[in-house]
Amino acid sequence: MQLLVDVYRHVGEKLRYDLKKKELVPAQKMALLEQKFDEAKEAGLLLPTAVDETDFVSRTVKRTMTIPTSARREDCSPASTPGM
Predict the structure, then answer these.
(1) In which region does residue 12 sit, left (phi positive, over 0), alpha (psi from -120 to 50) or beta (all else)?
(2) pTM metric for this prediction
(3) CB 46: neighbour CB atoms within 10 A?
(4) DSSP labels for 3-61?
């Protein structure tokens, strides 16, 4: 448990996200671990290398919401423009 808290201090929210996503820790232990993560964060123990929650979420959203270049070109083609 302490090892994961120490890793969290270095990595930040990405560790929490990965543990939840991959279901690597049983639910009861995960709840306790999240409590420890929150305590470390509130105590200001996160290191500069840790990814802030808002940074991590915004990067994740940007990555999932990008439109492929080929799709953008198709939408802007003259044939799809109304009135042409």
Answers:
(1) left
(2) 0.60
(3) 19
(4) HHHHHHHHHBHHHHHHHHHHT-S-HHHHHHHHHHHHHHHHTT---TTSBPHHHHHHHHH
- Tokens representing 59? 């990067």
Measured CA to CA, the distance from residue 20 to residue 15 in angstroms comes to 9
Tens digits of per-residue pLDDT, 23-47? 989 999 999 999 999 999 999 999 9
Q: How far apart are CA 78 and CA 75, in angstroms?
A: 9
Instruction: Report residue 48 as tokens.
Output: 């500069």
Residue of 69, 59, 72, 56 whose CA lies nearest to 13 = 56
